[in-house]
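Issue: ligand-bound run for adenosine-5'-triphosphate - logging full I/O for the record.

Environment: standard queue, default settings, no custom constraints.

Inputs:
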Amino acid sequence: MSTPHDRATAVPALEIRGLAKSFGALRALDDVSLSVAPGTVHCVLGENGAGKSTLCHLIGGSLLPDTGTLELYGEPYAPRRPADALGAGIAMVHQHFSLVGTLTVGENLRLLRLPGLARRVERVADEYGLALDLGARVADLPVGLRQRVEIVKALLREPRLLLLDEPTGVLDPAGTEALLTTCRRIADRGGAVVLVTHKLGEAARAGDAATVLRAGRVAGGGTLAELPAERLVPLMIGRAAESLDPALSGTIGLAESGAVSVPDPRASHPHMAAGAGADAGAGGGAGATDPSGPPALRVRDVTVRRPDGTHALDRVSLDIGPGEIMGIAGVEGNGQSELMAVLGGSLVPDAGGAVAVGTTDITRVSPRRRTDLGLGVVPEDRHHDGCVGELSVAENLFLGRLGDFRRAGLFLDRAAMRSAADAVLSAHDIRADGPDAPMSSLSGGNQQKVVLARELALEPLVCLAAAQPTRGLDVGAVDAVHSRVREAAARGVGVLVVSSELDELLALCDRVVVAYRGRLSAPVGAAEPGARDRIGRLMLGADGEAAPPGPARGFETPPPDEDGRRPGRAGAASPPAPPSAPPSAAP
Ligand SMILES: Nc1ncnc2c1ncn2[C@@H]1O[C@H](COP(=O)(O)OP(=O)(O)OP(=O)(O)O)[C@@H](O)[C@H]1O
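Outputs:
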């Protein structure tokens, strides 16, 4: 293990001097210099579009710099392709996965053609606690587990420098802790890690030093002992930490998880202010605009079986009232992805299950029709499911609404579309090289902002279902997204937020249900005393409160009329789910 003195005197693992990279007129990196000492975890921080991924691509050999030099352990290093980086002992985990979905985990690892693969896999599992199910098909894995495969792939190469581009965005808290521990172990054994992250808490827990990028330039840097969050935030986003919503502290790592004092979200939520307490029973909803009216979203008895016959969703029922923000917590892989797929229309539930938006049954309608009916969906893997990289930013913003810009029913009025897109870009602070820029040229966080802006702008918007809505966003953008979600709820939109971040759910939601083994628990009021502990226990299946499968409650399914519409049902709240027998074991 290296000491601070060794680290100070050793040749840097990586020395970068004067690196610059432009894409057309856009200067993504400008005169960037930094030094990564061996035996350290060096964090690269910065707002969305600051240039972090570009820097990783230059180090990893997938992009060439315009100017500047790199040295690796004292030797000149000028990779011209990713193979050069691999050959020099650099392994990289990108924001986007490079796995073959149709192959198993084991088959994906074999594609690396490494000698002694089985021994290496065993060693990584033992040393880092990163065990894998080699027989699982990658496409069937939740994103968190796919990320784990990517990280194992990198570690199998026994790298001298490991580059991780926002690796924890898709991990649950346990996965994040495991990864940060992995980073520390690598550093403690003398290796070096470059960790790109938006989470200041992660930087503080795992990092030794940090460099902050802002608009492609180095805004500051130093050891993390000298750079507490209060100093990092202004370097990253140009405004003080105090300007951010205090409820965000836990989400972005300004406060330790669990130590955050969670304000009552209803204080700023007009529709939750009176009468609709956190203790309302399951499906009670806030009834923002019309308490007697139908919920914004109603899920009834939805069952989805996996190919092996086990239940991904087991007769799940849920009501979200207009103006209510409902969270789904849970360890990934407990049915959240399948529920989002059912809502998005890519998965049809077994017979008997039903989903309605307002009064309209949408169980079997196309994704397009769902959009028309006012269901906004922000999918978990928006890079693949939420946007089209080859289309322009403007086209992505108005996907499904291109008809709004047709003139004489035929010609697309591109000028009108561009100017509408311009307005959205500035309203949502989306950094792009204009509305005509291809979506694939945007940074990950800015792509995310486009998908969110598109779904939030649906007209009408009855319900927004968003999986991990702030994943990959910088602290300022997280703040902005939370405000927009609250604004939508204040307009009467029902909101479903699936998040692996309990801090985020407690800060944003009125009530939280927990997904566990394909079932949903009864809701817990986010402001209830002890909510965090209770939800934590439910996540481990410890409280035995997952709503049991039972007869369909309160959602008759009369035959739809021609339009697919069903009659509205007044007072449609379903009763609280009775407690069930405790699940037999934690996952
Ligand atoms: N291939 C490309 N073509 C054009 N512009 C690009 C390309 N790749 C990146 N950019 C631009 O370079 C800038 C830096 O992007 P980069 O992905 O490095 O940001 P980032 O700091 O990683 O952001 P995020 O936190 O959102 O992932 C952005 O303005 C982005 O739009």
